[in-house]
Amino acid sequence: MKAVIVGTAGHIDHGKSALVLALTGIDPDRLEEEKRRGITIDIGFANLDLATDSDDPIRLGFVDVPGHERFVRNMLAGIGGIDLVLLVIAADESVKPQTREHFDICRLLSIRRGITVLTKSDLVDGETLEVTRMEVAEFLRGSFLDPANSPVVAVSSKTGEGLAELKHELGRLAADVPAKDSAAIFRLPIDRVFTMKGFGTVVTGTLISGTVRKEQELELHPTSRRLRVRGVQVHGKAADEAIAGQRTALNLAGVETAELVRGMMLTPAGMFRPTSQASVQLDLLPSAKLLRDRARVHLHVFTAETIAEIHLLGSKLLKPGEAGFARLKLDDPLLLLPGDGFIIRQFSPVVTIGGGRVLDASAPMSHVKPQERLAWLRTLARANPQEALLARVARRASGGLSLPDAIAETGWQPTQVQRLAFELERSGGSLRFGDLLVASATAEKLRTQMLSEIEVFHRANPLVAGVSKEELRERLGLRPEILRGIVDGLVRDRKLVVTGEIVHAAGRGVVMRDEEAESKRQIEQAFSRAGLKVPGLKEVLATLPVDKVRAQKLVTLLLRDHVLVKLADDLVFHRDALDELRKLVIAQKTKKSKLNVAEFKNLTGITRKYAIPLLEYLDRERITRRVGDERVIL
Ligand SMILES: Nc1nc2c(ncn2[C@@H]2O[C@H](COP(=O)(O)OP(=O)(O)OP(=O)(O)O)[C@@H](O)[C@H]2O)c(=O)[nH]1
Ligand SMILES: [Mg+2]
């Protein structure tokens, strides 16, 4: 059965509760004090299964609110979750202060449907009723309740006159209320908490979205307390689940009534985080005073209430009747999601001055400048879901937006976020790397940045094959999935080559390596072939296909690896040649114990120019020891 929530609104004593009683047979005034004083103090509830023109009846849940100006905060706790409003105006009194205030609240909360009910029709004659009708029509002109497109019904709860017509209109409008998405993520703003004998802790509320089931694990905000649903009641009857649009009571396990108060919010566990800041679109009522930056106000969202400081964005003040963007800093954290309607009331004296809707309640990004934030909010304010998701992804820049964060920021169902992410990818707006979404524009910047980073690396390290992925990740400050995604994309586009953990620029890395390996081989060969009759180092280097600087580095590398040994400036020998020399000299020991320079030259067949440095080398290596002009073989 479709479930629709109907709220009353209107001035004190105009017959709201009597009307709910007449329609449903249930007296919404449940408190003893209410009955004694004849006024409504807190919100009350009733329900009615209404036959409609189509076959399916509609379940109407009524939230009856107090009209007294001192209880507007209770009225606000009830009005947040309603689908349509009955604006109750007594035919004998017409429009009064709380008629205006309640109606302002309905408009600020963007309630779209409703019926104007002229009550106590039995107390006035036809002429008076017509006058009231005219006054009321004037009052409602241009609003969602403009009599041009919205019903006005005169009734008497006493005689029952007009009630049939009212029910008919209710059925028509309720059928028109779009079915709520019961697959959306469940949220229940708590409006009542009590203990029931034999059950324990019970909370009630108007289920504003999703479905809640028996045995489900829930999280209580803002305390982050985890608890379990022991039982579900819908409109007073036990049920397995409750869906959006139903008046819902939950019997909770694992929590005392003392830990619960009106204003807390229940959601599935582990999905959302409460916030102390929210960016909003704000409408200031024409009847309000000038609103200054940093004004402190009473903030009402669903059943919750706290003090908030208003930081106007883009201006220092807001004039009556104007709209703007603002950041609200809350005294107490609340769970807020984009699209949530709110009301602000002046700090003192307490009157309703404005309201609007939340655009973003996620933690502010430190890298986003105030001016950019304003532009970003403007985009969010008019964006469709796909554009809104892209704006959120883009804001995260190279950090990317994870799917769980996207869900926490938007309150959208995981499947919807997945679908939108998929569409964004297909339309080219964003890329997906593992669980992270990155805007295409950001990815493009990262690609350029990465290529130039690798180029810089190659230039600084011509002898190294490439940069390691880890080093690249640190240099660019990227999350591993994003690094991998960007690198993979550049490999696909043949801009980069990856070998194991090493990344290098396509072309450059490979060719360089070949040239260098070849040059290195040439140097080594030149010296190994020469034996002790080595060519000059400069001569060898001049024949190589690589430039001087790189050639010099290759020599350094060969020296470091002890393939070549340097005995003097421009005098370099291959390791093997020196090993041979050592063996040769040691072998001489069996014939004679000493060598002079001439004998050494004869033995090795080298010139004097090389002989001296080589003998000095042998001395250092403790193969020989100089004694006068001769070498003793050790
Ligand atoms: N004659 C007549 N009296 C009515 C009608 N509706 C309500 N009343 C009387 O008006 C008085 C106020 O009615 P309520 O229904 O309590 O008014 P309310 O709007 O709920 O008042 P609050 O909740 O305190 O704002 C009661 O004494 C009702 O009996 C009606 O249609 N005809
Ligand atoms: Mg009442």
Set out the fold topology.
Elements: E1 2-9, H1 16-24, H2 32-37, E2 44-50, E3 58-64, H3 72-79, E4 84-90, H4 97-108, E5 113-119, H5 126-140, E6 152-154, H6 163-176, E7 188-189, E8 192-196, E9 200-206, E10 211-213, E11 217-221, E12 225-234, E13 237-239, E14 241-243, E15 247-253, E16 265-268, E17 275-284, E18 291-292, E19 296-301, E20 304-313, E21 317-318, E22 323-334, E23 341-346, E24 352-360, H7 370-382, H8 385-395, E25 401-402, H9 403-410, H10 414-426, E26 430-433, E27 436-439, H11 440-460, E28 467-468, H12 469-476, H13 480-492, E29 496-499, E30 502-505, H14 508-530, H15 537-542, H16 548-560, E31 564-568, E32 571-574, H17 575-588, E33 594-596, H18 597-604, H19 608-620, E34 624-627, E35 630-633
Parallel strand pairs: 1-3, 1-4, 4-5, 5-6
Antiparallel strand pairs: 2-3, 7-16, 8-9, 9-15, 10-14, 11-12, 11-16, 12-13, 12-15, 17-22, 17-24, 18-21, 19-20, 19-23, 20-22, 23-24, 25-27, 26-27, 28-30, 29-30, 31-32, 33-35, 34-35
Helix pairs in contact: 8-10, 14-16, 18-19
The protein binds guanosine-5'-triphosphate (GTP) and magnesium ion.
